[in-house]
Design a protein that fits this description.
By secondary structure, the chain is mainly alpha-helical. It has 14 helices and 6 strands. The radius of gyration is 25 Å and the shape is globular.
Length: 348
């Protein structure tokens, strides 16, 4: 083990940094420095006016939010903050940073990255400086008026058509076909699908209880409180699932989709890259990953006239997210709506 020994309040203390065979000396020293920032901030009787952005980030912000974030959130958010924000502002004094400098930073990022990444960086800065203001490290918040630059590009969010869905499902082997059916027609997240056990599915396979998910091999709670739910499974998907359940058996804790180790569930990335994507590539559908399947559920449901609230409850998120993020009206639906408006206004 890499271990850092130090003194605090006259007492000798230590922090375990990580396993020797998984961490280089340089990585251990970096983690030690982050821990040092946290200890120094904790020991300070009053906020240090000369504290740098990097010291405040590692000593106050990240320790505070790590207790709140799920593992999946922590891995993406912390990586983004360290790469973009700490790399740019780490050595600058916290109190010297200005709105003008931050807005220029976002404009530069908008030239390189999608609107989603730039918007997340803006949100990260807002969260960091709200905490700094609340803790008395700054007297004013320079991020309050930040905006996402209009030149930030919006990445195309593709969805499958009904015809593509049929080709998609037809190309897969039985196990992957069942998973795709559940994702597209029941709207369940991939981590939630792979976390299903026999006890979560009714005997007729028409309902499933979502109370856990798999993230990088670990069993975790669902993404949000609204993600803990009962979902309806449509008849054709239920028929496929019922046939698959014969191989699962009756043991309540048996995983529906096991890995090579029968005691562990499959990983999302493994099943996509090894089993699904190679079969979809000849059809030109290798772009339709699990995220696309989720958007397809929302968009085809919208085109079919399904109530947005019902669809959102099925997927386990709010209706605002359902409409703004996942639902994409087809061109046919847009043409129909445009014609409907025109006919309502023009009488001749």
């Amino acid at each position: 083990m890499w271990v850092w020994l130090y003194r605090e309040g006259g007492s000798r203390k230590y922090i375990t940094l990580g396993l020797f065979h998984k961490m280089t000396k340089a990585q251990a020293e970096k983690k030690r420095d982050e821990a040092l920032d946290e200890v120094q901030c904790r020991q300070a009787s009053a906020p240090n006016p000369d504290i740098t952005f990097g010291q405040f980030l590692n000593g106050v912000v990240l320790p505070f939010y790590r207790s709140k974030w799920k593992r999946s959130t922590a891995s993406t958010t912390e990586s983004r903050i360290q790469h973009h924000l700490a790399g740019e502002f780490g050595e600058a004094k916290l109190q010297s940073l200005t709105l003008k400098g931050f807005q220029k930073f976002l404009h530069e990022k908008a030239k390189q990255f999608s609107r989603s990444i730039v918007a997340h960086l803006r949100w990260d800065l807002r969260a960091i400086f709200k905490l700094a203001l609340a803790e008395g490290y700054i007297q004013r918040d320079p991020t309050a008026a930040l905006y996402t630059p209009k030149e930030a590009t919006v990445a195309e969010a593709r969805v499958m058509t009904g015809e593509e869905v049929e080709k998609y499902i037809g190309a897969l082997e039985v196990r992957e076909r069942v998973i795709a059916h559940i994702a597209i027609f029941a709207g369940i997240r991939p981590g939630e699908i792979l976390a299903l056990q026999r006890r979560h599915v009714t005997d007729d396979c028409r309902q499933a209880v979502i109370e856990q998910r798999i993230y990088r091999g670990d069993v975790d709670t669902p993404k949000t409180l609204t993600s803990r739910r009962k979902v309806a499974i449509p008849p054709k998907t239920a028929g496929l699932l019922k046939g698959w359940m014969q191989a699962v058996g009756d043991e309540p804790t048996a995983w529906l989709f096991v890995s090579e180790n029968p005691l562990k569930p499959m990983w999302k990335d493994n099943i996509w890259h090894r089993e699904m994507k190679p079969l979809l590539k000849p059809l030109g559908l290798e772009w339709a990953n699990f995220q696309v399947m989720r958007r397809t559920h929302a968009s085809l449901g919208h085109d079919a006239g399904i109530d947005p609230k019902v669809s959102a409850d099925q997927r386990g998120h709010g209706i605002g997210v359902a409409l703004d993020v996942y639902t994409h009206a087809s061109m046919g639906e847009r043409a129909k709506a445009a014609e409907q408006l025109e006919n309502a206004v023009l009488t001749a």
